[in-house]
Amino acid sequence: MAPVRRHWGMVAAAALLLLVVGSAWASAADPAAEPRAGIDADTVDGHHAGPSNGVKADRANRVLWATPQGKIGAVSLPWSIIDKHYLGTEGDTFHFVPGAELRFHMDDVSRGTTLINNTGQAIVRNTTGGPVTNRVVIPVNLPGMQSGSYVRIVDYRLYYRVDNTADRIDSSWLLKMDASTGGHITLHTDGTDRQSAGWSSYVNTCTVADCQLSWPSAGFVTIVLDLVYTGTGDPHDITIGGVLLRVSYD
């Protein structure tokens, strides 16, 4: 019986040792992550001996394609070209804002109303006699940066018509809120009377430095219109179809 007792004694001792070691291991803090070398696209594709210098315009990547015969062709292109083509910053981009986004300025809310048709146009109706000027605001939703490039407003086109040529769009402003002060920065002012009875549009360009939507003068953008009415109701409606903004990338 002595060998059996000695055997079970050894088993019990080993189990106790495992329990102690396991408890110590479970309570120990995880070791710090081991640093690893970064993977650079220039070295992965095998056509550079070392990693790039980190400047996007100076880096290169290899673009592969299949020929009709099934062979693989390749060409090295600058990262800047690849970013612009595949990430959507090549050339200009257009943003559409329907007239239905239009709101009365807080000082003129009681002076009129808006009617929205099936295509999202806003029919802005005066209800307070005339002559009177009603101010409306169209908020614009734009990104401040896309794919590492700042967004810059190039111009905007506003679509409209008036029911009575005695009425008009008297003034147009393109404004940007300054996020650091809460005030606004005027990007463009247009004092030309717009009073086409047929469906029409006009374009205003944005050329000042603040047309770039960079922080802290961020991309809270509005288009403000002063609408002049000589009368009230349906015969004097002004329709705002929407705004088409053209943006580029710096």
Structure characterization notes:
- This protein has 250 residues and is an alpha+beta fold.
- The protein has two domains: 45 residues, no CATH class; 157 residues, Galactose-binding domain-like (Jelly Rolls), CATH 2.60.120.
- Helix content is 15%, strand content 41%.
- The protein is built from three helices and 14 strands.
- Strands 3, 5, 6, 8, 9, 12 and 14 form a seven-stranded antiparallel beta sheet that branches. The protein has a five-stranded antiparallel beta sheet with strand order 4-7-13-10-11, with no helix packed on it.
Here the CATH topology of the largest domain equals: Jelly Rolls
Termini gap? 89 Å
Tally of discrete structural domains: 2
* Biggest sheet features: 7 strands, antiparallel
Quick one: overall form?
elongated
Keywords:
single chain; 250 residues; alpha+beta; Jelly Rolls; seven-stranded antiparallel sheet; 14 strands; 41% strand
Short description:
The chain folds into 2 domains: 42-86, no CATH class; 93-249, Jelly Rolls.
Please specify the SSE layout and strand pairing.
Elements: H1 2-27, H2 41-44, E1 60-66, E2 72-78, H3 79-86, E3 93-98, E4 103-104, E5 112-116, E6 122-126, E7 132-141, E8 145-146, E9 149-162, E10 168-177, E11 184-190, E12 200-205, E13 220-229, E14 238-249
Antiparallel strand pairs: 1-2, 3-14, 4-7, 5-6, 6-14, 7-13, 8-9, 9-12, 9-14, 10-11, 10-13
